[in-house]
Amino acid sequence: MQRVDQVSSGDAPPEHVLVVEDDPEISCLLCQLLELDGYRAEAAPTGSEAIRQIQKDQPDAIVLDIMLPDMSGFEICQRLKLRRETNQIPILMLTALSDENSRRSGLRVGANRYLTKPFEPQQLLGELKEAIAHRRELLARQTHTSVQVQMASDSRFREQLNDLLSELFVLTQLSEDEIGRIRYAVLEMTENAAEWGNRRQKDLIVNISYELSDEWVRFVITDQGPGFDRNNLPHAACEEDPTAHLGIREKLGMRHGGFGIMLARGMVDKVEYNEAGNQVTLTKLMRPAAKPEEATPSG
User: Fold this and answer.
1) What is the full DSSP assignment across 130-171?
2) Final residue before a domain boundary, out of 140, 173, 206
3) Whole-model pTM?
């Protein structure tokens, strides 16, 4: 197996990678691959053993198989990503094309990268390197929390997403009103991505990225559709004539609504689309709490 040279960083210890895989042969091969590339690799055959090892010695990254004997990789991801102390650990999820249950999973929480079996060794090393580099970038930007979510293009998962948003906002000091506004904007934009971007195609997913720093809360919502022209949205409400689009939506057989983009702009501080129109970034700025007025001494 050919070694890929890594850039040395002085006397820094090798980065620690935990391999969570119940197949002993695959686990051994993965650990050997990582060690040849300069990592310190350890293995865990079950989800419960992985959690125990992470609590004892937090790794720099995790290579995680979905199919484990005691819990799924998705369960482990959610448990780690919704805790502040383990949230920043990059997770590279290993999936299988024949795993129909995983492919149909509605709401996937956590993994920073997905790799489909069978894969080439260089693919795994490249994805792992990018995931660790992204973690360094987040820490340099003083990002406290980073969560990746994948949702099937099906509105029945909206309730699950709403519950997840409630858990994420426990990490902030935003008011209930502010949280409600952000949740509304995220849910609307996710619904738009599934309905308009992915056209409700069951094999297409919506990616939702959540980041929290001292200065902002940010959601990036990406669909797998071809995008759209932001200057030509006859199916969406506009401030000039908020109801003109309703007849068009009825002819197209779309759900009642179309107010999402317009209302979202009033719920957060920034709504920004990428060039293609298949990714929207919602940003809420953190503002310091107002100081109580000092009492004026009576004369």
Assistant:
1) HHHHHHHHHHHTTEEEEEEEEEES-GGGHHHHHHHHHHHGGG
2) 140
3) 0.66
